[in-house]
Amino acid sequence: MTQNWQPANPVERRFAAAHEDWLRFARQRDARVLYWQTDAADCDLVRAFLGAQQQISNAVLGLNSPFEHADQYATAVANEIVEFYACRVDGSRANGIVADWTAPLAASESATRYLLELLHSLLQRHPDVFPGLVLLLVPQNGARDSAFERWLDAFLQELDHGPCRSDRIRIVLYGVAADPLPWLRGQRPQQVTLLRGRYQMQVLPRELVADSGERGPSGQFRRLFVELTETLEHADPARLARLHAAALQVSAAQQWFDQSAVVHLLAGAAYLKQGLRDEALLSYGHATEAARHAQAAAHPAGDKLVINGLFGEAGVHLMQQRYAAAARCYAEAAHGARDVHDGILAVEASRMQAWCLAKDRQCAHALDAGFDALRAGQWIEPALRSNSNLQWTVQWMLEHIPYTHERRDELNDWLTALYGANWPEAIEALPADEVSRRLATVADAQGAA
Questions:
Q1: In what order do the strands lie in the sheet with 192-196?
Q2: What pLDDT, in 10s, does the model give residues 20-58?
């Protein structure tokens, strides 16, 4: 941020506040570890801010290895750093950087000491690119794990007194833990900083609406909608009913059928969260009805809104174990999804229809719905099929159609059509990078054509 820059809206003001907190940690000369503590609403802002730091600075490395035990974790983090460097070699060379660093051989008596040796080697080889290093660690529940705290303590001990001691390496963690790293903070009060970030993200929507200066029915509707959204977090049935009615009054007067459907969907979710199932079912039903009006008016969102309303109705029926009623809603949703060739929604609706029919002991009809789900799977990109809800359908069908079943050949034909002749292996979930590679291959082939 330049010295003359001033935040111009509520989002920028929050990023500026996060940046000031970040700089405050940077100015603490003795600090080596930061735990950036927020509530759930603010955690997304911190995650986005730290993601931006990784994009604009080589010195911030995001490391996502899970923590199981000390040696495993230190080795996994070292491997991530080597991979980080390898992925950037070509880009660095294109920018005139001599990217010829190689990781030292792992000859240390501990994985943690080797990790420090690797970091020290990287800093020495590229002092201009890496004036320092901030290791952004996301070890899942590590901040509440005493073994993780002991590993951090051993890391700091090496950092302070080992052969590769350095004041140019720091560690950052973030999350919503109420009392993070309690033992380590007690052991190293000068080196471990707890930053309590408070950015009030929960009131951001209201501020954005207020800043917009929008007047008239649209401004009034937006303000009511934002307040209605807040009822998802606060159990106040009377306020929910009042805001629900007020927002509908505006959308109905303007004949905004799509917005009326969205209001009903939101109210249905809020009623459901408050345990008011009858009110939730009524709201979802009204959502479906309003969405049909939007559909009739050729609104582009009408089809999807109808499907969402039906899913909502089905969900309430499921909670009350009304499986036949839920199956009817899912069947109607599946029909709508097939009309717009939405593979994901069509598969999910038919899959849940099959599950509900099976619970209702309508086994033959359940299998028919399962085959409908497989048929809809044709609209899912082949590279995504084994990582989509289609895979759950496949597993369900394999469980309900054993080798001796009269429809087993039909199932085999569909699985071959969807996954190829080697479908028993192909239905296994793929790593994310392999999915990306396959999608890129398809895109390249389409571009060449």
A1: 60-63, 133-137, 169-175, 33-37, 192-196
A2: 999 999 999 899 999 999 988 889 889 998 998 888 877
- CA 87/CA 95 separation, integer angstroms: 14
Residues in the chain with pLDDT < 50? 1-2
Domain end call among 384, 418, 438 = 384
Task: Specify whether the CB–CB gap between 302 and 349 falls below 8 A.
Answer: no
At residue 212, the pLDDT reads 55
| Structure letter (DSSP) for residue 193 | E
How far apart are the C-alpha atoms of 390 and 375, rounded to whole Å?
10
Burial status of residue 196 (CB atoms within 10 A of its CB: 0-12, 13-18, 19 or more): exposed
Taking the CA atoms of 89, 90, 95 and 100 in sequence, report the sign of the dihedral they define.
positive
Tokens of 176: 């919503």
Which two structure tokens, joined as six digits, stand for 435? Answer: 């999915």
Per the structure block, which two tokens stand in for 93?
């060379």
Report how far residue 140's alpha carbon sits from residue 18's, in angstroms, rounded to the nearest whole number: 22
- Give one DSSP letter per residue of 35-89, joined into a string: EEE--HHHHHHHHHHHHHHHHH-TTEEEE-PPPSSHHHHHHHHHHHHHHHHHHTH
* Structural domain boundaries, residue 232: 203-384
Longest alpha-carbon distance in the chain? 75
- Total structural domains within the chain: 2
Would you state the torsion angle of the CA atoms of residues 375, 376, 381, 382, taken in this order, to the nearest 10 degrees?
-20
Please, are residues 376 and 334 in contact by the beta-carbon 8 Å criterion?
A: yes
Q: How many CA atoms lie within 13 A of 102 on its CB side?
A: 3
CATH number at residue 272: 1.25.40.10
Q: Of all helices (H) and strands (E), which one includes residue 192?
A: strand 192-196
Looking at residue 151, its pLDDT comes to: 95
pLDDT of residue 243: 84
CB 164 within 8 A of CB 117: yes
Angle, in degrees to the nearest 10, between helices 277-296 and 257-273: 160
Q: What is the pLDDT of residue 206?
A: 60
Amino acid 249 reads: Q
Q: Which amino acid is at 353?
A: Q
Examine the domain organization and report whether 196 and 207 are in the same domain: no
Query: Quick one: 165 and 61 in the same domain?
Result: yes
